[in-house]
Design goal:
Length: 318
């Protein structure tokens, strides 16, 4: 009962005390696994949660592709991994550029991918359009990752136990799915980057559920999670007021990355297809009835993303 009350407070659930309280129910040794011979891709792996996820995978023996926007920064990060760097490879990927997504996937043709973690994100303070005419937040969190997952589906299907993990955000709890708002590329009188981010993260979870529904029965498990409030460069630069207020209570990047590693590696992660997780446990995707989407909105989202990304009718089918 006390746990339930503390979780309802959000603050004492998403913060570091929430992680440590939830960790008491973790299965001992569940992440004491080895992944030699397996390959993982982590987007946005040059800092914060992405780097923590990549380090966790490398430490467990996987070969990891650090998919980054800034190649030079990625190389520096790889050099800082010490002995782990021998199994790390840096590749450039700009998820807001669909051409870059296609080039990245093309370079990996014929390979096997066992884990694909969509972690890269963007929380902007001004309206920006990509070269494809999409609002950048929507492109980076939604269209780019969906296209990449589709293009890498043959590589994931070569694995005996592939995991597709989306790193979402607790910010999605404040909004409902809104396809028109996501794909409205017009400049707004007062751009609200935090709301755009929340809308994209909500849509990301819905797309995960739709991909999971389509690939049910295949070797791929598609799931999503949110990391709670973690101390990352993105939080410091994009949400300075929030960071100033919550800094003493923020989770470490490793604590924020824990559930992504659980979904990517743990045996119980196979039970997660189409589900949303927080601190290694299934979590609700709505905390208020007001955020439940309108009838038909999910289908509209799928159709819109599929059209822009050029997905075939049988995309992600088992």
């Amino acid at each position: 009962m006390l746990d339930a009350l503390l979780d309802r407070s959000i603050l004492l659930s998403f913060d570091r005390t929430g992680f440590r309280r939830h960790a008491r129910r973790f299965v001992p040794g569940e992440l004491d696994v080895r992944g030699e011979g397996s390959t993982a891709i982590v987007t946005g792996a040059s800092s914060g949660l992405g780097l923590a996820i990549a380090e966790g995978l490398l430490a467990r023996g996987l070969d990891v592709i650090l998919a980054v926007r800034d190649l030079a920064k990625g190389v520096r990060v790889r050099q800082g991994l010490g002995a782990l760097s021998a199994r790390a490879r840096v590749m450039r990927l700009e998820l807001g550029d669909l051409g870059s997504v296609r080039s990245f996937a093309h370079a990996l043709e014929g390979t096997r991918v066992d884990v694909l973690v969509h972690n890269a994100g963007a929380l902007l303070d001004r309206h920006e359009l990509t070269g494809d005419g999409l609002e950048t937040t929507t492109a980076v969190h939604l269209v780019g990752p969906t296209l990449l997952s589709h293009l890498l589906w043959p590589a994931l299907s070569r694995s005996p136990d592939a995991r597709l993990v989306h790193v979402s955000s607790g910010g999605m709890y404040g909004v409902a799915l809104d396809v028109d708002a996501l794909f409205d590329a017009r400049a707004e009188p007062a751009f609200d980057g935090v709301r755009r981010y929340a809308l994209a993260k909500r849509a990301q979870v819905v797309m995960t559920e739709e991909i999971a529904r389509r690939c049910a029965g295949s070797v791929v498990t598609a799931s999503a999670m949110h990391p709670g409030w973690a101390d990352t460069p993105g939080v410091r630069t994009s949400l300075p007021r929030f960071y100033a207020l919550t800094r003493p209570f923020l989770r470490t990047p490793a604590e924020g990355a824990d559930t992504a590693l659980f979904l990517a590696l743990a045996a119980r992660g196979r039970e997660a297809n189409g589900r949303f997780y927080f601190d290694r446990a299934p979590a609700r995707t709505h905390l208020r009835a007001q955020t439940i989407e309108r009838e038909g909105e999910r289908a509209r989202l799928w159709d819109r993303v599929a059209k822009i990304a050029g997905l075939p009718e049988d995309a992600f089918r088992a």
